[in-house]
């Protein structure tokens, strides 16, 4: 798959699937879609831009369409890319795998929390990938996010995506307007795991 598809699948797997109606994540944050925090700054405005009642959505009386969900998801990924680049100025020098890891962390943490990883950043600047992975393990974030942390640490050390995810980056990115079909519907998968958010 291409780089764009790899990012979407990687983050989507960590967010636990696609939810058309609201749910509470593991730290009781009201969430919808693919890890979209309905209480974060600007969330209400973004929902209402879609022509959807924010209050009714939060109350669980209406649902988002798949088109709405993917629009929000891709906007969040674009923001995460910007945040990753703002955090690490040499972002473009990273391998594709390590770019995916940093974007995933930015998606989950946001720039403010990611910026607190000062020793991690120092290790990235030295291209000391093992030490960078160690600093990820030594964080409160790692203790909270479960498999997301384990996957990112493995990939930072080894410069390859965690094998069980079956993600390879080997094709050029092609612009498309079609919805991705990598996601699983948590309402149709027994025992689906709901995303674990980082709470500082």
Quickly count the helices.
Answer: 9
Cα-atom radius of gyration: 17 Å
The number of domains is 1
CATH class: Mainly Alpha
Sequence stretches where pLDDT stays below 50 over 5 or more residues: 173-182, 184-200
Which range does the strand content fall in?
5-15%
Mean pLDDT: 87
How many DSSP-defined strands?
3
Order of helices and strands: HEEEHHHHHHHH
Map the helices and strands.
Elements (H helix, E strand, L loop, with lengths): L2 H13 L3 E6 L5 E4 L2 E2 L5 H7 L4 H6 L6 H22 L8 H19 L3 H8 L3 H9 L2 H5 L2 H12 L42
Antiparallel strand pairs: 1-2, 2-3
Helix pairs in contact: 1-5, 4-5, 6-7, 7-9
Which features characterize this protein?
200 residues, three-stranded antiparallel beta sheet
Overview of the structural elements:
The longest helix is centred in the middle third of the chain and has 22 residues, at 66-87. Helix 1 (3-15) packs across helix 5 (96-114). It is globular, with a radius of gyration of 17 Å. The chain has helices spanning 3-15, 43-49, 54-59, 66-87, 96-114, 118-125, 129-137, 140-144, 147-158, and strands at 19-24, 30-33, 36-37. With 200 residues, the chain is mostly helical. A three-stranded antiparallel beta sheet has the order 1-2-3. Mean pLDDT is 87; it is low at 173-182 and 184-200.
């Amino acid at each position: 798959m291409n780089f764009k598809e790899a990012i979407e699948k990687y983050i989507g797997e960590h967010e636990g699937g696609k939810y058309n109606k609201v749910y509470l994540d593991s730290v009781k944050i009201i969430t919808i879609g693919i890890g979209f925090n309905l209480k974060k700054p600007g969330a209400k405005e973004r929902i209402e831009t879609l022509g959807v009642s924010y209050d009714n959505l939060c109350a669980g009386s209406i649902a988002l369409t798949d088109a709405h969900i993917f629009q929000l998801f891709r906007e969040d990924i674009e923001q995460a890319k910007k945040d990753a680049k703002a955090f690490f100025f040499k972002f473009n020098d990273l391998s594709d795998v390590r770019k995916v890891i940093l974007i995933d962390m930015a998606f989950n943490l946001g720039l403010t929390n990611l910026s607190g990883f000062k020793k991690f950043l120092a290790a990235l600047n030295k291209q000391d990938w093992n030490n960078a992975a160690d600093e990820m393990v030594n964080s409160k974030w790692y203790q909270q996010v479960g498999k997301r942390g384990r996957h990112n640490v493995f990939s930072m050390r080894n410069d390859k995506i965690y094998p069980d995810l079956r993600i390879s980056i080997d094709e050029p990115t092609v612009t498309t307007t079609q919805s991705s079909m990598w996601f699983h519907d948590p309402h149709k998968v027994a025992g689906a795991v709901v995303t674990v958010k980082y709470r500082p």
